[in-house]
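User: Before I run my own analysis I want an independent prediction to cross-check against. Here's the chain; please return only the structure tokens and, at the end, one sentence I can use as a sanity check.
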Amino acid sequence: MANRQRNLGINIRVTPEEKKKIERNAKKSRLSVSEYLRQIAMKVVPKELPAKEIEESFLRINEVIGAVSDMKRRSSDPVTQKFCDDIYADLLRIMVETLQLMRHIYPKPEVNTDGND
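Assistant: Structure tokens:
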């Protein structure tokens, strides 16, 4: 609905390097270039999002964690319960380590919101 009200354009000139940087940061945030620039202009720093494949991997790991929890809940065998606890702890550790690695792979978008170039 907001797009219907947006009928004015603003043209800016950028260098090829600036254009690439803007497009790259917009893509990392999964926004169009227009929406990315609108958010920056309104002093909102767009949040960078991880790749869809990473999100899907986390969802699959979460499903396995759920299955392990169910297995532990259904079992009365102490060995099976210990095994489930170990797998659960390992999967959580892997998720935390992966999130820490992602912070280095996906740095925050390069945004200067003070109006200075």
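Sanity check: The chain is about 65% helix and 0% strand.
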